[in-house]
Amino acid sequence: MELILILGILIALLFNFANGMNDAANSIATVVATRVLTPLQAVLMAAGFNLIGPLLFTTAVAKTIGKGIVNPPFMTIHVFFIGILIASIWVLLTTFSGLPISATHALIGGIMGAAVGAGGLQACPWPSLLTIGTLFLYIAISALVGAIIFASIARIMREETWKGYLGLGAVFGSSLIVPLLMITGIVSITGILAILIFIVFSPLLGFIAAYVSVLVVMRLFSTSNLQSMNSVFNKLQVVSAAFYSLNHGSNDAQNAMGAITAMLVAAGILHEFTVPVWVILLSCTAIALGTFMGGWNVVKTMAKKITHIRPYQGFCAETGGGIALTFITTFGIPVSTTHAISGAITGVGATHGYSAIQWNVVRRIVMAWILTIPVTAITAFVVYLVYRIVLL
Predict the structure, then answer these.
(1) pTM of the complete model
(2) How many folded domains does the chain comprise?
(3) CA dist 19 → 116, 117, 187, 377 (Å)
(4) Does residue 106 lie in a domain region?
């Protein structure tokens, strides 16, 4: 038991290290693309704020990882060991392939797959059909209302392409209703439901925040030339990159914290789910070291292949993504910081029209997102069954 616990902790730290390598792109892609900082300067800054982030925020995300996706009777060291192992392998493979995937969703898929292998579908706390149906009804109505409002405004403004605003309005309407429901408590969006919902809505919230930020900046600087704007935003982008790195660390570094704490509880070393300080420090250090090593193939994809980025756009993307993450982390939802910044970068590009986005690259990234949870869940399920036969 002690050997499995030690190996589980080491693999959890390896996972956070790999997470930092893949997610290095999240906080430094735009600041590298705009050449505000050199790659080395950007990585050092990101590593530092990734280390600080989890120390400033609560451990609500860690509690969701450790307590919210597996029912207590099935929270064993073996389940978390297999889940983390499979997630680490997937993150490392995609990092070296240059794909910015969600390490968080890899971990969630791995743990859920191993848990189902241990106890069947009852091992996970699935949301009720009534909750799911109610949530999607709210989303559908809000999307319709948003589409009507945006198209109506476009027609009043005599925009010839007013039909194109239907989709944009639907995105705004459906995305804004989810945070509103969470704040008011009208629908209980927690645990697995929150994780799955925000696979879609974290990039949409990043998209909206960045899109609006660009429009505001363009309005404020409408009489300024590009040179003066670059002079201002070259400095501001350093601040926005630091802000995003802080949020990245506060959410993603908690993945290993939750898994390690859950294993300590399962082993009887801890009697309640409270993240020890040494676990926080080790997890922060691991993700910071991974960020320092950097996943440069991922950085190249995020920084240069989605859309062309200027300093003010980089500032808006990082600020928009950071704002989305701050809200999500406050509610203890483990999300993909990759999704948030990808959505924000796409939102920045969308202000210049459909053709400004390299949609073939976006589709490739989205495909990796879609595959992550099923691939890790199925693999962990199979591996756990073999593991149980051979070693348990």
Answers:
(1) 0.81
(2) 1
(3) 24, 25, 31, 18
(4) yes
